[in-house]
Amino acid sequence: MFIASFPAGPWQTNCYLVATAAGEECVIVDPGMDAAPTVAEVIVEHGLKPVAVLLTHGHLDHTFSVTPLCAEYASSAWIHSLDRELLVDPLKAMSEDTRQLLARLGLPERMTEPDDVHELTDGATVPIAGLEFRVDHAPGHTKGSVLFRTDYPLDDDVEEVVFSGDVLFAGSIGRTDLPGGSTADMLDSLRAKVATLPASAVVLPGHGPQTTMARELATNPYLQHLDRSSL
Predict the structure, then answer these.
(1) How far is residue 175's CA from residue 120's CA, in Å, rounded to a whole number?
(2) Please, is 106 exposed, middle or buried when counting C-beta atoms within 10 Å of its C-beta (0-12, 13-18, 19+)?
(3) What tens-digit pLDDT sequence spans the chain (231 residues)?
(4) Which of 79, 153, 158, 163 is most exposed, with the fewest beta carbons within 10 Å of its own?
(5) Strand pairing report for 13-19 and 25-29
(6) What is the CA radius of gyration of the chain?
(7) How far is CA 173 from CA 17, 29, 162, 167, 183, in A?
């Protein structure tokens, strides 16, 4: 299995390229602002062929480059139905400070979604590029936030890799105070979708370093204080 990652843009959003091996078809996860040039470099360096872009949620720092990349590589885009509208109206989920920042940068208020968009649903499996990505709807950061989970066959001690977007970070979680966010929904998602992940899972978040579920279950304050009696 091949996974390459790099932080991109002013929010240092982690973008991932995932394939069964170098030289094969790949998926791009969360190509945010300024991600396209480095994506192109990784593709050329490792002989990859992009066939899809997977989006953990609809915030602009995760989706900014999705349309040009899908056009460049004739790829499809996958996003949860509840966040699809953010592909064309990203300001709907932004704070006023962020809106002002983007205005100063001269970015348009409305965007264009890719030609081929597929809507994700909870519990779905996306078979693509020789891999299978299991989808867990985990609202709270946005209405349509999801986790992507895929098996990791290279290490017997790692059951799966989880692309957690802005649901779970190393030692923290995503904010819930932006439009479309909900603290109550986030707590439900943490309880039902995150805390139940296998301890051996490696977590690749939308920002910051990778972590493991074992570490997060032991040290992340947002998981330690969950009431799991209803599980």
Answers:
(1) 22
(2) exposed
(3) 999 999 999 899 999 999 999 999 999 999 999 999 999 999 999 999 999 999 999 999 999 999 999 999 999 999 999 999 999 998 888 877 777 766 676 666 678 999 999 999 999 999 999 999 999 999 999 999 999 999 998 888 899 999 999 999 999 999 999 999 999 999 999 999 999 999 999 999 999 999 999 999 999 999 987 865 444
(4) 153
(5) antiparallel
(6) 17
(7) 23, 19, 14, 6, 11
Q: Is 187 exposed, middle or buried (0-12, 13-18, 19+ CB in 10 A)?
A: middle
**Both tokens assigned to 231:** 């599980």
pTM > 0.85: yes or no: yes
Tokens of 144: 């349509």
Amino acid at 6: F
Instruction: Read off the tokens for 196.
Output: 């139940």
Amino acid code (one letter) for 31: P
**Is residue 34 classed as helix, strand or coil in its secondary structure?**
coil
**Whole-angstrom distance, CA of residue 98 vs CA of residue 104:** 10
The pair of three-digit structure tokens given for residue 188, joined into one six-digit string: 């439900």
Instruction: List the beta bridge partners of residue 182.
Output: none
CA-to-CA distance for 76 and 117, rounded, in angstroms?
Answer: 6
Q: Any idea which residue has 């957690």 for tokens?
A: 164
Residue with tokens 């579920």: 213
Scan for tokens 């996974």, then name that residue.
Answer: 3
140 and 189 Cβ atoms separated by less than 8 Å: yes
